[in-house]
Design brief:
Layout: E1 3-8, E2 11-16, H1 23-30, E3 49-52, E4 55-58, E5 71-73, H2 86-93, H3 103-116, H4 122-128, H5 140-157
Parallel strand pairs: 1-5
Antiparallel strand pairs: 1-2, 3-4, 3-5
Helix pairs in contact: 2-5
């Protein structure tokens, strides 16, 4: 059986995988990262989205062997020193979490967006979330929460967000 080395949320994990194991399955079942959700397992819902080397990927379509040696960030890895990430805070403040199943994937897509575009327009946010399905919220609160996070980050950096 192949062994892969993954750096997940800053910690290094070596794990044996089957050649057909997906990253989502390895993260959830072998490493215990249940914040990575497994829903459609077809790459259509976005609930399994993680960051791999800073880029959003649907982990249900990615073979774990392709992630060998890569940096993986899950929603659990956003909080630092017991403090929630600004995106997590804003989702809570804006009541953008209903059942919560899509939330980890939404967070990771939003994080990738803000890392690449710290001042996104509403259209930019909606485009970034287009691969994430939420059956509860209707998206408006999620979009508002991400815009608020971008604005607060911009204020903290001294930049003005796009409107």
């Amino acid at each position: 059986m192949p062994r892969v080395t993954l750096r997940v949320n800053g910690a290094i994990h070596e794990v044996e995988v089957e050649p057909h194991d997906t990253l989502a399955r390895v993260l959830r079942e072998k490493l215990g990262f249940t914040d990575v959700k497994a829903s459609c397992e077809k790459g259509e819902c976005g609930s399994c989205t993680v960051l791999m080397d800073g880029k959003a990927v649907v982990s249900c379509l990615l073979l774990a062997v392709k992630a060998d040696g890569r940096e993986i960030t899950t929603a659990r890895g956003l909080a630092r020193e017991g403090k929630l990430h600004i995106l997590q805070e804003k989702l809570i403040e804006h009541d953008a979490i209903q059942c919560g199943y899509c939330t980890p994937g939404m967070l990771m897509s939003a994080k990738a967006l803000l890392d690449g575009n710290p001042n996104p327009s509403e259209d930019d946010i909606r485009r970034a979330l287009s691969g994430n399905i939420c059956r509860c919220t209707g998206y408006q609160q999620i979009v508002e929460a991400i815009a608020a996070a971008a604005k607060e980050q911009g204020i903290n950096r001294g930049t003005e967000p796009k409107t």
